[in-house]
Amino acid sequence: MAEATPQVGGDWLGLTDRVCVVTGAGGGIGSELAAQLLSAGARVALLDRDTARLAQIADSLGDRAGRVMTLHCDVTEAASIESAATQVEQAWGPVALLVNNAASLYADALMDIALDKWNQLLSVNLTGYLRCAQTFGRRMVAHGGGSMVHIASISATIPQPYSGAYSVSKAGVKMLSQLLAVELGEHGVRSNVVSPAMIRTPMSEGIYQDPAVRQRREQIVPAGRISTPADIAGAVLFLASDRASYISGQEFLVDGGLTQAWLGLIPRPGFEKSDTAAQPAS
Asked: Which residues are CB-neighbours of 62 under 8 A, at least 6 positions away?
């Protein structure tokens, strides 16, 4: 298989006219992904169950000369995904990028969660990713390659208690992506994961309404701030591009250095930060 040659110049990512599909596009990460992909010159199909929200997002993106498509899609239904994939391909041709982004989250302890709620969350967050990977992956194989980027979470590695099956689903997404990378690599299809940590989206916004909570969270992150959908979209665009043509089966953890700071959060008398540590030498 010939190696991809990244483009140089203004189109650094080389995404001009590439056909991209974003599931869960009605959410904060999905809408930002759409905006950044469009800015990079791509064609973007926005998939979500909330078509009214998709229409609002499309309107906010301005006149993009036919480079935006909104489609109803329920990732828990194979027929719905197949219909969306067919419509995209008939309109624009082969899909080069799938971003698996649809997600569900609710509060529930494992000892209390009802099995139907467990199954519902996994059906969206994990099985839905598999369904989309199968549907769009088969088309990528038939057309000689493509890229998949799956949105997971820091909770795929670090348990997030009282969140139902969320951590389990995201851990499954990581392994799903690795298996796809191994099984589809010979067909020119790459698969990677982007994992946010403490990101502000409409789904998590309620957490940040308390200024004290927001400040405490910001203080434990070395970067000094909570991440935004733009941080996640930037990582996705890189992985989607030919700049990342030799990257597959990997996880990009977008956490502002949080996971490197755990030991610094534990009280250690005699090893505290010096008040003069940041002062220039005289």
From this structure: none
